[in-house]
Amino acid sequence: MDKESARRMLESAYAGWQALHGQHGGEDGAAETETLRAAFEGLCQLAPSHFGLTFDADGAIDSARAGGGEYVQPLLEAAWQGFLLGARHQAAHVDAPAAVSATGPFSEAQWAAMCDCHMSLPVALAQVDMERPFIYERRFGVFYVPGNCHQAAMSLLLAFQHGLPSGAEVAAALGVDYPAATADHWLEHTPGAALKSSAGSRVQVARVKRMNASERRFFLGAQGVFE
Question: pTM of the predicted model, to two decimals?
């Protein structure tokens, strides 16, 4: 099977899964989920870099790239969980799920860049798992990211705001360092931006007074970085 055939297989499986998931009010549908996962893995094996994955000579996931702070899940499992979280959110919030892109509001090129940063697809703030590290942007929702990947992910979202494909390119455009300064710029200037690292228990925001009511409720006790 070539990459294009695998992509079509994934899109077909995704549309079928979303239609069933939406009709049954949140039931997983084990058989359909398994079909979707098989299609997802098939495309990953043919185009691993598209999902931020690499494989060794035997076709197994390259575990050398699976580390990062406390984040030790295999990359394929992490990518699948991120994909599935976004798919579930979309199934619950759209009227015509079969027509929704498998990469949510992002282009395939943007999703590939997100996978390089090991970001999940966004989930609604109301569904946030406060035990996991994440970054949050009000217009999209919560993106789960592993330890040591926050700055790259924050910089990438900043790049998307400026219509650029990478954090390094937005750093050059703004004349600041990548990734520390671009991450700080995103946090300070993005409405509703927040992050929770794997090292701390408190959510960090630019300024607490800029949070809306929902953010104050879910990010109770948030720390203002620039206050």
Answer: 0.61
- Taking only the tens place, the pLDDT of each residue in 130-159 is 888 999 999 999 999 988 889 999 999 999
CA–CA distances in Å: residue 148 to residues 40, 55, 160, 169, 183 = 26, 21, 20, 20, 12
Of 184, 141, 193, 149, the C-alpha closest to 52 is 149
Q: Which of 51, 26, 25 is nearest to 39 (CA)?
A: 51
How many Å apart are CA 224 and CA 206, to the nearest integer? Answer: 5
Residue 224, SS3 per DSSP: strand
User: In whole angstroms, how far apart are CA 109 and each of 52, 128, 144, 171?
Assistant: 12, 26, 19, 19
Q: Which two tokens stand for residue 170?
A: 């937005």
pLDDT tens sequence across 68-85: 333 334 455 656 666 666
Q: HSE-up of 163 (CA within 13 Å, CB side)?
A: 0
Backbone angles phi, psi at 104, to 5 degrees: 65, -140
